Amino acid sequence: MKRNILRAIAAAALIALAATPAFSQEEPAMSARELDAFIRDWPAVVAWFEARGTGLDEDLSGAVAAYLTGADFEAFIRGKGWKPARFDYVAGAALAGLAYVHMEKSNPDLVKELDAAIAEARANPALDADTKAQMVAAFEEAKKGLFSLSDDADLGAAELSLVRARYDELARLFGLEE
After folding, report:
1. Which tens digits make up the pLDDT trace of 18-38?
2. What integer pLDDT is reported at residue 141 of this predicted model?
3. The model scores a pTM over 0.90
4. Is 165 left (phi over 0), alpha (psi -120 to 50) or beta?
5. d(Cα 170, Cα 172) in Å, to the nearest integer?
6. Minimal CA–CA distance to 14: which of 58, 55, 78, 67?
7. How far is residue 44 from each of residues 37, 76, 110, 173, measured CA to CA in Å?
8. In Å, how far are 65, 68, 174 from 6, measured between CA atoms?
9. Under a CB-based contact definition with an 8 Å cutoff, are residues 155 and 96 in contact?
10. In the prediction, which pLDDT does 62 show?
């Protein structure tokens, strides 16, 4: 299980690092067909790295270097029917969405708990008005940022919907199953 979690973290970090430029460009939203292809092709990507002695959970820096600079990887991914920039975008969108949905599923009561903490702070007669305002603002900020994505990962509702629909498959693929 620990190895699967390390693999998921390494893969997410790899794609997040590699896909940041893709998110800053105007890319069309990920389609269901592209997400299907990503799910289908990801095990081959992992195998490609492992065949070169660069396991995603063992040597992340080597994997990133190979991914970012390698014409070999571009040729490999083109052989799977992808344009490299589009694969970067889809991988980044799928993994950012997976992280987002995983956070939602892992913490279903957290928003309720933050709302309760806000109500308690507001109702606490031992706190002065400034302290209450600071506490409420801090809890509101935590709540606001809880499920937010990075500024670079501008996923739309349609992409999140696709990831939610395929969450179980993606979670298994990246070792996030419980």
Report:
1. 444 444 457 789 999 999 999
2. 79
3. no
4. alpha
5. 5
6. 67
7. 11, 10, 36, 12
8. 18, 20, 9
9. yes
10. 55
3-class DSSP assignment, residue 10: helix
> What is the b/e burial string over 77-112, where b = at least 16 CB atoms within 10 angstroms of the residue's CB?
beeeebebebbbbbbbbbbbbbbbbbebeeeeeeee
48-56: long-range contacts, CB 8 A cutoff, minimum separation 24: 48/73, 48/76, 56/7, 56/10, 56/11, 56/14
Positive/negative CA dihedral, 19, 24, 25, 30: positive
| Cβ atoms of 60 and 15 closer than 8 Å | no
b/e burial code for range 34-66 (CB count within 10 A of at least 16 → b): bbebbeebbeebbebbeeeebbbbeebeebbeb
pLDDT, tens digit, 9 for 90 and up, residues 73-132: 889 999 999 998 899 889 888 988 888 888 878 877 877 888 888 899 899 999 899 999
Which residues, 6 or more positions from 52, have their beta carbon under 8 angstroms from its beta carbon?
Answer: 66
